[in-house]
Fold this protein.
Amino acid sequence: MRPYVICHSMSSVDGRILGDRWGFKNPAQYFEKPASKIKVDAWIVGRTTMQEFCSPRKHKLQTRVSKLPRTDFVGEHKTKTYAVGIDPSGKCFWDKNMVDTEHAIEVLTEKVSDAYLHHLREKQVSYIFAGRKEIDLELALTKLRKLFGIKKARIDGGGHVNGSFLKAGLIDEFSHIVMPVADGTMDGPTVFETDGAKGKMIPKKLQLKSVKRLDGGVLWVRYSVKH
Ligand SMILES: NC(=O)c1ccc[n+]([C@@H]2O[C@H](COP(=O)([O-])OP(=O)(O)OC[C@H]3O[C@@H](n4cnc5c(N)ncnc54)[C@H](OP(=O)(O)O)[C@@H]3O)[C@@H](O)[C@H]2O)c1
C-alpha cells in the first residue's frame, strides 16, 4: 500500500518553475504558504532540489570503509514528519538528519558507495533502497508507508521528480500555483519533465477541483488526476 500523493508546484503561465528570475519579492512564499495548507506526513523532492536544503558543502568521504548490506536504515529521530530526497547515486551530503522540523530520508539505488552509506549512518539520516540501478518510485512509496507510517505525501518538485511520479501514475492530486508572469525562456525545467528516452509519456487527464484567487493575482488551481 502506498501513501496518497499530492504534487504541488508553482509556475509561470508558460509552465516554467525557476521563480527566482521573475522579479517577485521572496518568490518562495507563493509556493510555501499554500503548501503549508496541504497537511502531509512527508514532502518529497528530487536530488537537485534537496541540495538546496541539505549540507551546502561536499563532504570528504572516508576512503577505507567496511562493506554495508543494501538494507534500509532508520536513523534516530523523534518527529513524525519527513523530508524525502530522491537521490539515486547519493549526491546529497548532510550536517544533521533534519530539514527544519522534518527528519531526512534518502531514497537510493543499490549502486551508491559504501562510503556514502557510512556518511548517512554517521549523521543518522534514514535511507531506503528502491531499485538496483534505477529508482522504482512505487517501491519507494510503499517502503515510506511501511517503515515510517507516511500515509499522505506531497511532491514538492522540481520538474524532473514531478514528471517521473506523473509518468509512473503515482500522483493523485495536482496543486498548481500559477504566477502572473510569462517566463518566455526556453531553458530551465517545466512543471512536469520526463526523460523521453525511457518510454513514452502518456498524457494524464486532470479533473478541476477548485480555483482560488490569492493576493497579487496569483491563482491556486487544484485538480485530481484521472487514473
Ligand atoms: N517552482 C517550483 O514549484 C519548484 C519546486 C521545487 C524546485 N524548484 C526548482 O527546480 C529546480 C530543480 O528542478 P529539476 O527538475 O532540475 O530537479 P529535481 O526534480 O529537483 O531533481 C532531479 C534529480 O532527482 C533525481 N531523480 C528524480 N526523479 C528520479 C527518478 N524517477 N529516478 C531517478 N532519479 C530521479 C535525479 O538525480 P541524479 O541527477 O542525481 O540522478 C534527477 O536528476 C531547482 O532550481 C529548484 O529551485 C521549483
Q: What stands out?
A: The beta strands are 4-11, 42-46, 82-86, 98-99, 102-108, 126-129, 152-155, 173-178, 206-214, 218-225.
